[in-house]
Design a protein that fits this description.
196 residues, alpha/beta, Rossmann fold, 8 helices, 13% strand, binds BIS(adenosine)-5'-pentaphosphate, binds magnesium ion
């Protein structure tokens, strides 16, 4: 199953996807992680730095090219968990085309929500622990604004196609996991045997 995890910065997309990988037996495809890796290379470095560190979106072309290449790998043939992708309507449409070429499609989009104050608190805590350059108060405000403008319409895109479910990202990681697992199960997702 191809699952899209949508949600504002700091809501817990990465945290929840990492928990689901083993339970579902599909890989975690995080465009944020892929871009942080790609920015180390000479060909992409400067451009990506400029956008990511200011909390702006990287171009649809760069992101979709990375995703298309990732989806060609054997571990993605039965599905994956997209984290932070698609983030614009254009990315959502391109993803449909990429998957459609192979007779596949998005099976479920999960929109995680949380209030801005809590999200900022979580990210500032992470900034102290992990030193991610885009976890500053100024950049966070921009990332939240961009989320509202560019990515909330993506949730609507999936809602119109009957693929969206909404979960709260507020609560302990275990509480949030429980709700997400239930939603995936209710929507036809299959867990591995022995996965509680
Ligand atoms: P990306 O890496 O995707 O960042 P993001 O969407 O801003 O989200 P975060 O990773 O900050 O938050 P998260 O929801 O994963 O939360 P997490 O689990 O870490 O993107 C970074 C940048 O890359 C973008 O700004 C853009 O420049 C570029 N980019 C990426 N994808 C792109 C795309 N498709 N198109 C264009 N540009 C793109 O949790 C946050 C913290 O809270 C952690 O410390 C965690 O331990 C803690 N936490 C999590 N859950 C809980 C809980 N339930 N209770 C308490 N603490 C919790
Ligand atoms: Mg993340």
């Amino acid at each position: 199953m191809f699952i899209v995890m949508i949600g504002p910065p700091g809501v817990g997309k990465g945290t929840q996807c990492k928990r689901l990988v083993n339970q579902l037996g599909i890989p975690h495809v995080s465009t944020g992680d892929m871009l942080r890796e790609a920015r180390k290379s000479v060909s992409h470095g400067e451009d990506l730095l400029a956008h990511m560190d200011r909390g702006r979106l990287v171009s649809d072309e760069v992101v979709t090219e990375l995703v298309e290449r990732r989806l060609e790998l054997p571990d993605c043939q039965n599905g994956c968990l997209f984290d932070g992708f698609p983030r614009t309507i254009q990315q959502a449409e391109t993803l449909d085309k990429i998957l459609g070429k192979h007779g596949k499609s998005v099976g479920l989009a999960i929109e995680m929500s949380g209030d801005d104050k809590l999200l900022v608190q979580r990210m500032l805590k992470r900034a102290a622990e992990e030193q991610r350059p885009d976890d500053t108060v100024e950049t966070l405000t921009r990332r939240l604004e961009i989320y509202q403008r560019e990515t909330v319409p993506v949730a609507k895109y999936y809602e119109e196609r009957g693929l969206l479910c909404q979960v709260s990202g507020i609560g302990t990681p275990d509480e949030v996991s429980l709700t997400i697992r239930q939603q995936i199960r209710d929507n036809g997702g299959k867990y591995r045997e022995n996965s509680s």
